[in-house]
């Protein structure tokens, strides 16, 4: 077990920054998630930690041991790092049985036959593949093959686990199951695990800490709840949550000692503690509100505005309602839609404890500072 520290990591491909000054602190025994859209640098980060990529700048530490240093032109070889990897396109040996596949890393370590057998069976049991030990990979489903790859990584008892979308080949139902299984396994083994995904739900449900990457840069590193409730900027706010946060542009306005945001269709009264905003020389803001914090009513309320129902989508447990006002679309998620129909008019208001305010220019969440 070990903690991993990354400092100022830079990796370029031609003119493209795959990683642009990344700093990360991954605690000993943590399940740490790297999340972001395709091409944001997740695999590059993982390959750098594994020692498969040499960065142009920066350092990587495993505990108090320096394993990568661009300055010192030092990059410890992957096989000397005691890491285990499960990658997007995991490769299990097609000519070997499942047993031999899982046993392989232990044979390389010259473990005794009895020890190998014990370990393989124990691991296969924990992943529920012990019935498959004599089969060859081509006789397995995609999900089973993925679990063999996991088992082969686990038997090594590495210092650090690196997983790059290890569940991407599983169907939706098996994925939920495998996710829970991985979490349980992590708890049991307590091995520092760095887990890459582009699936926000997977990230939110699995991780202790999530790092969100975008175009090679870190946008936010926080717990799942903090990322959801206090997104640092518009990118994070829109990336996490489905349907995404509504974003409404407006101008800041002070009147009779109160602050409003002129949204065009209404002057939205801002909470009192935001009066300080005036000192910040801000003008154009973006109000963010999650669909579940858009409240609807058939009666007019304080700070409410009339909107028309455009679409009602049943989502199972809830309904997604698309509302239109002043040519703008606002999505609301609610559990009750009694007597509501497309074309109806109703009043909507925002739960003002849940609003977010972003500076239009910097895209940063300015309200974040007030709430913390
Ligand atoms: N060998 C390479 N040569 C040139 N560019 C590369 C190379 N590998 C990665 N890149 C570029 O670096 C950036 C980051 O790639 P990376 O593979 O880390 O993305 P990712 O976040 O893992 O994406 P995905 O979710 O699609 O796997 C991308 O713009 C990619 O095109
Ligand atoms: Mg990748």
Walk me through what this model shows.
With 372 residues, the protein is an alpha+beta fold. It folds into 2 domains: 4-238, Rossmann fold; 245-371, OB fold (Dihydrolipoamide Acetyltransferase, E2P). It is 24% helix and 34% strand. It has 9 helices and 21 strands. The protein has helices spanning 42-50, 98-108, 113-126, 142-154, 172-189, 200-206, 224-229, 234-239, 367-371, and strands spanning 4-13, 16-26, 31-35, 57-62, 65-69, 74-75, 83-86, 160-164, 192-197, 209-214, 217-222, 246-255, 258-262, 267-269, 284-289, 294-297, 305-314, 319-325, 328-334, 345-350, 356-359. The strands form 4 sheets. The chain has a 6-stranded mixed beta sheet, with helices on both faces. Strand 17 and strand 18 (319-325) form a beta hairpin. Helix 2 (98-108) packs across helix 3 and helix 2 (98-108) runs parallel beside helix 4 (142-154). It is globular, with a radius of gyration of 25 Å. It starts with a strand and ends with a helix. The model has no long low-confidence stretch (mean pLDDT 90).
């Amino acid at each position: 077990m070990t903690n991993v520290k990354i400092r100022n990591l830079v990796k370029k491909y031609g003119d493209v920054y795959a990683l642009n000054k990344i700093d990360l602190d991954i605690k000993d025994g943590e399940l740490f998630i790297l999340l972001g859209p395709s091409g944001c640098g997740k695999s590059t980060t993982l390959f750098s930690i594994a020692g498969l990529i040499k960065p142009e700048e920066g350092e990587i530490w495993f505990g108090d041991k320096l394993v990568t240093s661009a300055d010192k032109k030092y990059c410890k070889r992957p096989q000397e790092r005691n890491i285990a990897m499960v990658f997007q396109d995991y490769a299990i040996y097609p000519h070997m049985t499942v047993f031999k596949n899982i046993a392989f890393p232990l044979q390389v370590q010259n473990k005794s036959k009895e020890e190998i057998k014990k370990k393989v069976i124990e691991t296969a049991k924990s992943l529920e593949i012990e019935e498959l030990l004599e089969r060859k990979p081509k006789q397995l489903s995609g999900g089973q093959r993925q679990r063999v790859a996991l088992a082969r990584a686990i038997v090594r008892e590495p210092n650090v686990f690196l997983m790059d979308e290890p569940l991407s080949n599983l169907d939706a139902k098996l994925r939920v199951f495998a996710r829970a299984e991985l979490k349980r396994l992590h708890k049991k083994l307590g091995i520092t695990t760095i887990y890459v995904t582009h699936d926000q739900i997977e990230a939110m449900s699995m991780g202790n800490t999530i790092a969100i990457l975008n175009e090679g840069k870190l946008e936010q590193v926080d717990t799942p709840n903090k990322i959801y409730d206090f997104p640092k900027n518009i990118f994070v706010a829109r990336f996490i949550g489905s349907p995404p946060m509504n974003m409404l542009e407006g101008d800041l306005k002070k009147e009779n000692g109160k602050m409003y945001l002129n949204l065009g269709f209404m002057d939205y009264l801002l909470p009192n503690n935001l009066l300080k905003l005036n000192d910040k020389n801000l003008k154009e803001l973006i109000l963010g509100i999650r669909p579940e914090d858009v409240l609807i009513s058939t009666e007019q309320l304080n700070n409410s505005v009339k909107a028309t129902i455009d679409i009602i989508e049943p989502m199972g447990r809830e309904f997604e309602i698309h509302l239109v006002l002043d040519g703008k679309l606002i999505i609301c998620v609610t559990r009750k839609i009694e007597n509501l129909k497309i074309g109806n008019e109703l009043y909507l208001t925002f739960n003002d404890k849940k609003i977010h305010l972003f500076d239009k220019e910097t895209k940063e969440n300015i309200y974040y500072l007030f709430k913390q």
